[in-house]
Design a protein that fits this description.
Length: about 350
């Protein structure tokens, strides 16, 4: 079963062709350079960039797939969906005007080629990202339910009980900013540019991830599994007010290390609480922030303590937004008959995991 998937929920225009868990073709056009000077995603620019790129991105994903099947095919501009069974698209959550672009394209293709559509929740995609395989079927990694699933991205911070395929219960989530958003906002305050996560990771690494300033660990004693990162951002703001510009530059690595430590310690504490509460010691993790190697090693260590295992997306592009994870989640939806020819579904910017 071949699925063409489309993802445009934030600032990547992405399309992929997948077969079960295998990625046969994958294209991601990142808009990061476009949004850099705004310190975050600028919605109308994102929409326009998606509109400008979507045809080429989808066409390239399909052509790469078709050319791998028939090496002598010409690079025709006609999109040949002959070997595609379903078209999957991110329905939400995300930026309304960005989601719309991908959905419109998916509907247009489905209508013209009489294919069935599979709307996918972006968060389902991040949860399935640890199971996405390359075209040779690696990594093998079999399902062994139940899992705890962590989504740690620029838009979301959630702890989810992943009971079985497409069977989710949210155990905890952020009440305000997401973890990646907190890192991005901190980087902006520190004058480090966008996106903040990778640059904060590098600076923190340079001081061995040490935590000098001990910023507050938000909601750590709340007794529940929810997060809140906006107060942490405010405490960095007031801390910086007390420093003169030279001091800020001098202390930049320790500021990065300490801020990152506050965000990650909170995630680690809540994950440990979830392990104890549910008795589940297998965790799958998705979302852009999990590109962070220090966070990966701390989560691995935590799960080792509980004689379990932490699994991460096997290839770097799978931690950020991509269409391959949408195609893989869609495969499990197709198996459950969750597809339709009905073109009436709409973008759902605040879609949650039910
Ligand atoms: O999953 P993603 O690409 O987009 C959303 O769905 O939100 O996540 C983007 C987030 C940004 O906040 C970015 O700063 C963060 O992931 N990020 C990182 C790293 N790489 C990206 N955070 C920490 N360490 C990294 N290496
Ligand atoms: Zn995402």
């Amino acid at each position: 079963m071949h699925i063409l998937s489309i993802e445009t929920s934030a600032d990547e225009t992405a399309a992929a062709v997948t077969e079960e868990r295998k990625v046969l073709s994958n294209v991601i056009y990142s808009q990061i350079l476009l949004h850099k000077k705004w310190g975050g995603i600028y919605p109308s620019l994102a929409k326009r960039a998606h509109e400008e790129r979507i045809d080429r991105v989808v066409e390239k994903a399909i052509n790469n797939f078709n050319n791998s099947e028939t090496p002598h095919a010409t690079g025709s501009r006609e999109i040949n969906l002959k070997n595609i069974d379903y078209i999957a698209v991110t329905q939400g959550p995300g930026l309304a005007i960005a989601l719309e672009v991908g959905i419109k394209k998916a509907k247009e293709l489905a209508k013209n080629s009489d294919k069935k559509l599979i709307p996918v929740n972006h968060l389902e995609g991040h949860i399935y990202s640890s199971f996405v395989q390359n075209s040779r079927g690696n990594p093998k990694r079999n399902f062994d339910f139940p899992y705890l699933a962590l989504i740690i991205s620029g838009g979301h911070t959630e702890i989810v009980l992943f009971k079985d395929h497409l069977n989710f219960a949210v155990l905890g989530e952020t009440r305000d900013d997401a973890a990646g958003e907190a890192l991005d906002k901190a980087a902006k305050m520190l004058g480090l540019g966008y996106p903040g996560g990778p640059v904060i990771e590098r600076l923190a690494q340079a001081v061995n991830n040490r935590d000098i300033f001990n910023f507050p660990r938000p909601m750590i004693k709340s007794g529940n599994l929810d997060f809140s990162f906006s107060g942490l951002k405010t405490s960095l703001y007031y801390f910086l007010q007390k420093l003169d510009p030279d001091e800020k530059i001098q202390k930049i690595k320790d500021l990065a290390g300490s801020f990152q430590a506050a965000v990650f310690e909170t995630i680690l504490t809540k994950t440990e609480m979830a392990i104890i509460k549910t008795g589940i010691n297998r965790v799958v993790v998705g979302g852009g922030v999990i590109a962070n190697l220090y966070l990966r090693s701390r989560l691995r260590k935590l799960l080792k303590k509980y004689k379990g295992e932490a699994s991460f997306p096997a290839y770097k592009y799978l931690s950020g937004d991509n269409a391959a994870m949408i195609g893989v989640a869609a495969f499990y939806k197709a198996q459950k008959g969750m597809f339709s020819r009905d073109l009436s579904f709409e973008r759902t910017p605040r879609l949650t995991l039910s």
